Amino acid sequence: MSENVDKAVKIYRSLCLNPSLIGAKLRNNQAVVNTIWSQRNLERGENTKFLRSIAVSPDLSKNYELLPVDVTNELLTATSPSEKLKAVLKSSNEKQYLEIWQNQNLTKSVDLNALDIHGDVYTDGEFRSFEWSPDETKLLYIAELKVPKSEPFYKRNSKKSNKNSDSDKPKTTKGEEYLYRQDWGEQLVGKKKSVIAEYNTEKDEVEILAGIPDDVCPAQVIYSPDGSYVVGVAYKTEPRKFGLIYCTNRPSTIFTLDFSGNYAPFPLDNKAVKSPVFTPDGKALIWLQRDAGGPHAAAMALMKANIPLLDKPTITIVVDVVRREIATDNGTKFYGLFNNGFVKRCFASGNRLVLSTNQKNTVNTYIIDIDSGKITELNYNNGSQVVLDVVNDVILVNRRNYLMPDKLAICKLPPKESEVPLNWIELTTSNVIPGLENCIYEYLDLSQKTDDSVKTFSAIYLGPKTSADKSVNLIVWPHGGPHSAFVNNFSLESSLFLSMGFAVLFINYRGSIGAGQDSVEFLLSRIGQTDVSDCILATQTVLERHSSLNPDSMVLFGGSHGGFLVTHLSGKYPDMFKAVVARNPVIDVASMSIISDIPDWCYVESGYEYTQTGKLNDEVLLVMRKASPIELAHNVKAPTMLQIGSKDLRVPPHQGLEYYNRLKANGVKVRLNLYEDNHPLANISTEIDNLINSLLWFQEHL
């Protein structure tokens, strides 16, 4: 056992040396590419973020590369349009500092906590902004509202100094110490009321922009092309907030706000919006939009409004929600837009928008002509391709797959109407992960032989190229969500399992994103049924295709809704799988509906509209319960490991704890690890423990 543990830890440590490419920016002179990478740092117990600068020639080939520089404490950065200034938000000793740099030196350093004008600056992907004004004198960002201090109704005060007037004292309120103020849930704890802040570099002052109504939270704000107003997303907060992360369905609209406090929302009824961006010519605004409510992730439409943005702007659809599939301009299949936003610089000449989005088993990159709506795919056949930056028709992308770490590629985009083929140059190299040289990935296109309105789905198989018959153990792994998807990119988890001799089956069952809106909506009211049957069909198919797999040595692995599925499978097919690892699994939808930060999820996935008005509907709760794995817990035979985050607000820990107690009562071998972590269990100390323990659990019971 100790030798096995040592081997697993050694492999894990080696895999941690592979960084992920998370950003890149080409200088305007096209001579330098600055790239940002993230890497697990086991000694520090956190992810280290570092900058790699690459010099390129006029033909875009690589000249040389500088040594990496640690930028872990940089929370946000923004370079001004002229590239003469750079703004950096840094953290140090639980404080936030705003710095302004010129080429030669640091010109401003502002202790934002000392100013006491607002709370923490938002750095998350849902709200954050960090934008230079067109004249490069101001910086726009989102922060937490500063709430006046509250005192108890009775408090003995010290003797007042005659020198201190009432105007010198900070404003306080009485009796509001315990007033409940709801935040935005999982991974957004403490973010309750956002405000728009503007830092004036000339005056060295921060101002909170007035005019935002109390019942909305502003997000993703940007300056207008002339700097006379700002545009952003306004999230509606009444009658309550719901968890926002991983959810594109929250009621919201686009708004404009001028510097006199005039707030004007777009008349978008029952819509959810993301990521407003102005076109380079300043003549139009684009954004992503879908219906509010419904599944937490779904296909988006690309919208456009021409400037000026009047009280009732003329809004047109550039790319509509795709129900099944359509053809791109270069003849490939396109299943719709499932991205939540765009890179900061996302336009090529001729109003060509460059974006990346889920498409079945990969993330693909496309050019969309926002004048005509034409879609062109920038083909890549060896995994996923993700756009990072676009400037002067030069595109930077990240290329990745399951067997190879991220690598940076660059190309010059030809004129409009002649985008393909392209001449890509890879600026960084990556080799197949040591130990995975004899492994393959394979896409499976699957179809149920039923009368269902949607029959097709997909899966990804990872395993050895060749091996003796029935010699390989298989991990069956459905994703969470359920409206998400596995895509072909480097994964430390799957690399560890492959290196230890396992094969892996990733299942994108019906309901996954990247396969059209009809597939997403199909799963509603069918959780615990069609997603389970899709897992079985995928498993049976891969067993038929690969004789090296041992049907008597299969295990289950999944988290969140993936945990819901693996616990369902172990209860419905108790003799099929030998062991289970479930991470923050949904076990009882009915009880989750009253405590999760997304209670609407429980209703929508069960086939009902969420409401808290009127009398409780016992029928709805019964349907939720009947769809839940807890209904089958008495059938379970497979030894089960539960990995639970004590701070999980999405699938609260009572779900796993109840399942643990029920399995114990039924004589099933069960183990529960309780981590001081939230839903993804992504802290470094948490990750190494749950992965190694999962591996050992599988090996012990095979």
TrEMBL record:
Residues 163-176 have a biased composition (Basic and acidic residues). Transmembrane segments: none annotated. Pfam families: APEH_N, Peptidase_S9. The keyword Lipid biosynthesis does not apply. GO terms for biological process: proteolysis. Residues 33-427 form the Acylamino-acid-releasing enzyme N-terminal domain. It is found in: Cytoplasm. Its EC number is 3.4.19.1. Residues 154-176 are annotated as: Disordered. It catalyses: Cleavage of an N-acetyl or N-formyl amino acid from the N-terminus of a polypeptide. One of its GO terms (cellular component) is cytoplasm. Residues 489-702 form the Peptidase S9 prolyl oligopeptidase catalytic domain. Belongs to the peptidase S9C family. This is acylaminoacyl-peptidase. The lineage of its organism: Eukaryota, Metazoa, Ecdysozoa, Arthropoda, Hexapoda.
